[in-house]
Amino acid sequence: MPLPSDLPKIELHCHIEGAAPPALVRRLAGRHGIDVSGLFTKDGGYAWTDFSSFLAAYDRAAQVFRSAEDFADLAETYLFASAAEGVIYTEVFISPDHARRSGIPYADYLGGLAEGMARAEAGHGIIGRIIPLIERHFGPEAAHEAVRTALAHLHPRVVGFGMAGDERMFAVADFARAFALAHEAGLPLTCHAGEVCGAASVAEVIDALPVRRIGHGVRAIEDAALVRRLAEEGIVLEVCPGSNVALGVYPRLADHPLIRLRDAGVKVTLSSDDPPFFGTSIGREYAAIAETFALPPGEMLAFTQTALDAAFCDTATRARLQTRLEGWRPPAAG
Ligand SMILES: Nc1ncnc2[nH]cnc12
Ligand SMILES: [Zn+2]
């Protein structure tokens, strides 16, 4: 039985610039006179071949957004598309570094995104929250500036702090000070690891940082003791299976460790990461996992419940979302 498309979904891991459709990036590049030659394939998708060229393409696409209204449109468009796929709550990653590189004041960047989220909430009922990230490959100094910028502009929609980027570069400890500032400001933490690097990269994060969640973390599966530790400590993985397959971390969805991690007691959630870069969407992630692993709606709903429990939102928002989750019924058979 195909998964009911209105099954409630919660996404905890999507980079807002990585959610930009190529057509929008092309249009904005034209409007702002920005050279995007080589950024697209002949078929109109993003051109990249491996993790490094993906990050480079992402950095270039991010540069075409130049005004608060550009970001408001992007957030509204993404949340609208997510709501149409059954998403009731989404946490999007934003990047002070990318705003700085585009020459847009962070206050305008954040304000535009928050405005787009407010429009989406008013029009479609979807609730959006924001997690500023530092980018590991831009280095510890840029990270320090990014965290200071983020903390100088706290907004009711900003609910956490984290790090993405190239986990092959620098040591996690190089970013401990930046994370400490965010932690002291009361923001819960997440950090990408265990995506292109193995289990040791995940262990390095949980040894060095008081994170509640790990972005990806799936290669923890390569170390049984680490899997037990993640389960015991209740650290939640923001799993993005389509991204992992697109980037060649696993050859096929059927080889993905999501279910093995879940069955070992690790808390796992489902997200899309950078949907148009990886030919996916949050709805497609849920549908593909249900089909590949033959999971009934109740087991798929459990991913949403885990995500709700791990969301960085306030208690009142969590309670409202819990009511919506519990109110959902699968369509009657026949
Ligand atoms: N999958 C990913 N890994 C690391 N950094 C990212 N930034 C955007 N997507 C990312
Ligand atoms: Zn990511």
Structure description:
InterPro entries: A_deaminase_dom (IPR001365), ADE (IPR028892), Ado/ade_deaminase (IPR006330), Metal_Hydrolase (IPR032466). Its cofactor is Zn(2+). GO terms for molecular function: adenine deaminase activity; zinc ion binding. Pfam families: A_deaminase (PF00962). The protein has 334 residues and is α/β, with parallel strands linked by helices. It has a single domain, classed as Alpha-Beta Barrel (TIM Barrel). The chain is built from 14 helices and eight strands. It has an eight-stranded parallel sheet. Strand 3, helix 6 (139-152) and strand 4 form a beta-alpha-beta unit. The longest helix has 19 residues, at 106-124. The chain is globular. The protein binds adenine and zinc ion. Residues 13, 15, 164, 192, 215, 273 line the site of zinc ion. The site of zinc ion has 6 residues, from strand 1.
Structure summarized in a few sentences:
The protein is α/β, with parallel strands linked by helices and 334 residues long. It has helices spanning 22-32, 51-62, 68-84, 96-102, 106-124, 139-152, 176-184, 199-208, 224-233, 241-246, 258-263, 282-292, 297-310, 315-327, and strands spanning 9-15, 87-94, 127-135, 161-164, 189-193, 213-216, 236-239, 267-270.
